[in-house]
Design a protein that fits this description.
- The complex is a heterodimer.
- Chain A is built from no helices and eleven strands.
- Chain A is globular.
- By secondary structure, chain A is mostly beta strands.
- Chain A starts with a strand and ends with a strand.
- In chain A, a hairpin with an 8-residue loop joins strand 9 and strand 10.
- In chain A, the strands form two sheets. In chain A, strands 2, 4, 5, 6, 9, 10 and 11 form a seven-stranded mixed beta sheet that branches.
- By secondary structure, chain B is an all-beta fold.
- The N and C termini of chain B lie far apart (41 Å).
- Classes of the chains: A mainly beta, B mainly beta.
- At the A-B interface, strand 4, strand 5 and strand 9 of A face strand 6 and strand 11 of B.
Chain lengths: 113, 116
């Protein structure tokens, strides 16, 4: 079965370190997204991609970057982790069809000390 | 920019009863989609129901139905015959209908408790 997987599921890091969260999907979807979930804010869009070599900033992109070198993967990098980036991160994908349903990974909980 | 508002941070319902979760949204678009996602304690995001703005008929999926009021920009979720497994965080979400912009805008969520 097609799926979308995130790794690691849990990570603790220190302020200032670089962190990369992996996202891999086997749906062969063109569209991929990264959201962060925080209490009182719901899910907020960080970055998204509509295909290989395409990346776009979402509403909370400061301090994050992504790259899309193939269809399956969209890694999210925190260049210099900050305590404000402690959150649960979700990767999602869609096929770009009109209905636009997103398929989500299981989330990665990141703690920045 | 589109915004989605869920004004009920928490709701509680007794098993077998009916509960309605509220959602309002703001948009100048006429073509869009609305969604309700469920997030149980496992954190997995699960699509519950979807409504296309151009359809006047309210969407239903088994025990889940929506009350879509386009003029009022309201999109509430009704859960009938509530079950313990319905306990979760519920998110309302909006998506523009045109182009490839399938990114969703989410509300802040409503945590639903189901009691015996």
């Amino acid at each position: 079965d097609a799926e979308i997987t995130q790794s690691p599921r849990h990570k603790i890091t220190e302020t200032g370190r670089q962190v990369t969260l992996a996202c891999h999907q086997t749906w062969n979807h063109n569209n991929m997204f990264w959201y962060r979930q925080d209490l009182g804010h719901g899910l907020r869009l960080i970055h998204y991609s509509y295909g290989v070599q395409d990346t776009n900033k979402g509403e909370v992109s400061d301090g994050y970057s992504v790259s899309r070198s193939n269809t399956e993967d969209l890694p999210l990098t925190l260049e210099s982790a900050a305590s404000s980036q402690t959150s649960v991160y979700f990767c999602a994908s869609s096929d770009g069809a009109r209905t636009g349903e997103l398929f989500f990974g299981e989330g990665s909980r990141l703690t920045v000390l | 920019a589109q915004t989605v508002t869920q004004s009920q941070p928490e709701m509680s319902v007794q098993e077998a009863e009916t509960v309605t979760l509220s959602c309002t949204y703001d948009t100048s678009e006429s073509d869009y989609y609305l969604f309700w996602y469920k997030q149980p304690p496992s954190r997995q995001m699960i699509l519950v129901i979807r409504q296309e703005a151009y359809k006047q008929q309210n969407a239903t999926e088994n025990r889940f139905s929506v009350n879509f009021q386009k003029a009022a920009k309201s999109f509430s979720l009704k859960i009938s015959d509530s079950q313990l497994g319905d306990a979760a965080m519920y998110f309302c979400a909006y998506r523009r209908g045109t182009g490839t912009a399938s990114k969703l805008t989410f509300g802040t969520g409503t945590r639903l408790q189901v009691t015996l």
